[in-house]
């Protein structure tokens, strides 16, 4: 069985989800590797249980305020390197809010879909297809969020009646049970998904002015996309 860990990242012009799909051995190895990456930073005041949360790491905030920029960059590089080395599959899908609003306005849709609903649906469709390619089933585990019941309800509708539209329509037959939500603080795998989503979405929305930062992010995105399955942004 595969475990698919999902987290979101968003800016005003793009709402996206990143996921890392791994089997049991890959999950155990990646979890241990994340523990090691954090443990190596104790001299900078980072506690072993500190969450690998991309935004504060990137900006040097909170528990990461005492970590030098070069070491925070190394965290991103080490995490992405571990994902690639593990053989796990990365999934990345996004939707642009303004284009989606105009699309639905122009066609007079009675039922309106939010950017996060569209992006999450597109992600689930690809998780289902990737699991089918591997002849396996997958359980989806997402970062805890306030609208989790709505996502569970939609998941049940998709499995009963199929995903909306004709493109990649599926009943998610390779996905088991429901969408499970867990606090990312206690899941290194959800933290990996958060970091991957953050890097990818930033690459889609921000024109980096610092050439060194731009070079590092470009390398990170290249590595992430090397193990990604059908990454893309709607439309």
Question: What are the key terms here?
Answer:
alpha/beta, 18% strand, single chain, globular, 235 residues, Nucleotidyltransferase, domain 5, 6 strands
Fold and architecture overview:
The chain is an alpha/beta fold and 235 residues long. It has a single domain (2-137, 183-234), classed as Nucleotidyltransferase, domain 5, CATH 3.30.420. Helices cover 50% and strands 18% of the residues. It has helices spanning 24-39, 54-59, 69-86, 97-107, 115-133, 148-161, 188-205, 211-226, and strands at 2-11, 14-22, 89-95, 138-143, 175-182, 232-234. It has a six-stranded mixed β-sheet with strand order 5-4-1-2-3-6, sandwiched between helices. Helix 1 runs antiparallel to helix 3, helix 3 runs parallel beside helix 8 (211-226) and helix 7 packs across helix 8 (211-226). The two termini are 32 Å apart. The model has no long low-confidence stretch (mean pLDDT 97).
What is this structure, in a nutshell?
The chain is an alpha/beta fold and 235 residues long. Helix content is 50%, strand content 18%. The chain is globular.
Q: How is the topology of this model organized?
A:
Blueprint: E1 2-11, E2 14-22, H1 24-39, H2 54-59, H3 69-86, E3 89-95, H4 97-107, H5 115-133, E4 138-143, H6 148-161, E5 175-182, H7 188-205, H8 211-226, E6 232-234
Parallel strand pairs: 1-4, 3-6, 4-5
Antiparallel strand pairs: 1-2, 2-3
Helix pairs in contact: 1-3, 3-8, 7-8
């Amino acid at each position: 069985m595969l475990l698919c860990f999902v987290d979101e990242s968003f800016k005003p012009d793009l709402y996206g989800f990143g996921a890392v799909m791994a089997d049991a051995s890959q999950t155990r190895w990646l979890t241990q590797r994340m523990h090691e990456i954090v443990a190596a930073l104790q001299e900078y005041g980072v506690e072993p249980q500190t969450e690998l949360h991309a935004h504060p790491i990137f900006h040097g905030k909170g528990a990461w305020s005492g970590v030098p920029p070069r070491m925070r960059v190394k965290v991103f590089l080490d995490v992405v390197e571990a994902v690639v080395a593990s053989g796990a599959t990365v999934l990345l899908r996004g939707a642009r809010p303004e284009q989606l609003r105009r699309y639905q306005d122009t066609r007079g849709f009675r039922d309106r879909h939010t950017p996060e609903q569209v992006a999450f649906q597109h992600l689930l469709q690809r998780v289902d297809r990737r699991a089918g390619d591997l002849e396996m089933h997958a359980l989806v585990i997402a970062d805890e969020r306030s609208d989790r019941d709505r996502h569970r309800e939609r998941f049940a509708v998709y499995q009963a009646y199929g995903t909306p539209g004709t493109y990649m329509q599926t009943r998610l037959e390779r996905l088991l049970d429901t969408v499970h939500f867990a606090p990312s603080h206690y899941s290194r795998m959800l933290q990996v998904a958060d970091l991957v989503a953050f890097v990818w979405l930033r690459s889609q929305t921000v024109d980096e002015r610092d050439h060194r930062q731009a070079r590092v992010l470009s390398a990170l995105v290249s590595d992430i996309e090397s193990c990604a399955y059908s990454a893309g942004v709607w439309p």
